Amino acid sequence: MEDCIFCKIIEGKLDSEKIIETANSFAFKDIHPKAPVHILIAPKRHVERPELLNAHELEDMFNTSEEIAQILGVKDDGYRLVFNVGKHAGQEVEHVHLHLLGGRVAKSMF
Ligand code: 5GP
Ligand code: ZN
């Protein structure tokens, strides 16, 4: 999509610190990390809500998350995976993305 910042990152038109790219996903460092490890995993296709992801994209995003956790050394201690959906969740970028947060004990959300 033309004016989507994440589409531009995925197409290489905007710089990012890429971690992994697969057939359906593109993973890169969050520009304003909220944890020592903060990676965004986005589908390559411009999709605006998680329920619009297809089974291949979902499977790829979760497998990619696990691979990133392993590569960045947070798999054993654990990490948080988060989708922000809509304004009450504070979603800023409309292109769906999964946040992977790790590297320290997370505060309870509940
Ligand atoms: P959301 O609130 O939509 O779930 O999360 C958007 C995330 O994207 C935020 O954590 C923000 O720091 C990150 N972000 C926004 N613009 C850019 C950018 O241009 N590059 C990178 N790497 N991350 C971005
Ligand atoms: Zn997009």
Short note summarizing the structure:
With 110 residues, this protein is of the alpha+beta class.
Keywords summarizing the entry:
110 residues; alpha+beta; HIT family, subunit A; five-stranded antiparallel beta sheet; 5 strands; 23% strand; binds guanosine-5'-monophosphate
If you had to describe this structure to a student in words, what would you say it looks like?
The chain is α+β, with helices and mostly antiparallel strands. It has two helices and five strands. A five-stranded antiparallel beta sheet has the order 1-2-3-5-4, covered by helices on one side. The structure holds guanosine-5'-monophosphate and zinc ion (ZN).
CATH topology grouping of the domain at 1-36 and 53-77:
HIT family, subunit A
N-C termini distance: 36 Å
Strand percentage lies at 15-25%
The low-pLDDT segments are: none
Number of helices: 2
Blueprint of the fold:
Layout: H1 5-10, E1 18-21, E2 25-29, E3 37-43, H2 55-71, E4 79-82, E5 98-102
Antiparallel strand pairs: 1-2, 2-3, 3-5, 4-5
The structure holds guanosine-5'-monophosphate and zinc ion.
